[in-house]
Amino acid sequence: MSVFRNLEARIEGLVEGVFSRAFSSEVQPVELARKLAKEMDSHKTASVSRVYVPNEYTVHLSESDREKLEGYERSLEQELSGYLLEHARRRGYDLLTRPEVKFNTDDRLRLGEFGIQARLVKAQSQGSEQPAPAEEGRTMVYKAAPPPERPAEPTARPAPVLSRAVVESQGTRQVLNGPRATIGRSDEADCVLRDPNISRIHAELHQSLAGDWEIVDLNSTNGIKVNGRRVTSARLRDGDQVTAGTTTFRFSAER
After folding, report:
1. Among 38, 39, 176, 226, which residue's CB has the most CB atoms within a 10 Å radius?
2. CB of 199 within 8 A of CB of 189?
3. Is 194 exposed, middle or buried (0-12, 13-18, 19+ CB in 10 A)?
4. CA 64 to CA 23: how far, in whole Å?
5. If we measure between CA atoms, which residue out of 3, 11, 76, 84 comes closest to residue 41?
6. 86 phi and psi, to 5 degrees?
7. Contact indicator for 86, 7 with CB cutoff of 8 Å
8. Cα separation of 35 and 80, whole Å?
């Protein structure tokens, strides 16, 4: 693993370690490190043979976020400085001095907002090829990234209302336990209707996951009707009149 990755891993480790207490609500050290590197990339200054980048960075925090740094500020500044130094080496940038990171309180910022001001400050004893000192850098203001959203938990499907189908015809009442029950003249049917115009297995009653009952024609010879209307399948309600062959029965659901 490269030195850069070690530093990045160390910065990220601070989030879970000692600095997690300092940044317990909004701004996180790893986010600061990445935005500082972005500001370095955005403020390059080219000379004859070199590319210089800012060496002084001021991180502006809200009063509330700055208070959370108490006792950890200097250590975090050093870690961020090392992060920027390695970032510059990886990109081939030149620095006039080791990067310096300082924190400042800005009462115009709200909780979770932070500003970064980058400057190129010339050292006292440098050669002639160096660029002229840069003007006061513009402060870039960032909003702390919101925590990742947790995936929505699947909505629990309501339990179906279980019921039993009731078929009433010619003074007889048959209760079918379901959730499926066949109707026909055969003794193998769950609901037997003695009618020569009814197929051996004529139709089927079945209950849906929502608890509703439906009747389906099973390719019978004479078909089915619900309340006088010919159907191949239909949802049934209490009191519906179903005709199979020449037999009409009343449907209801017993809960």
Report:
1. 39
2. no
3. exposed
4. 10
5. 84
6. -70, -35
7. yes
8. 11
Residue 96 to residues 51, 126, 128, 136, Cα–Cα distance (Å): 11, 8, 12, 16
Amino acid at 49: S
Packing angle between helix 29-42 and helix 73-91, nearest 10 degrees?
40
Q: For strands 203-207 and 213-217, give the pairing.
A: antiparallel
Amino acid identity for residue 122 in this structure: K
Ramachandran bin of 92, using left for φ above 0, alpha for ψ from -120 to 50, beta for the remaining angles = left
Q: Per-block average pLDDT, block size 10, for the chain (255 residues)?
A: 49 44 62 91 87 93 87 89 92 93 91 90 60 54 65 64 85 86 92 93 89 91 94 93 94 88
Question: Which one-letter DSSP state was computed for residue 24?
Answer: S
> Residue 251 corresponds to which tokens in the numbers above?
């449907």
- Do β-strands 45-46 and 56-61 pair in parallel, antiparallel, or remain unpaired? unpaired
What pLDDT is stored for residue 22 in this prediction?
Answer: 43
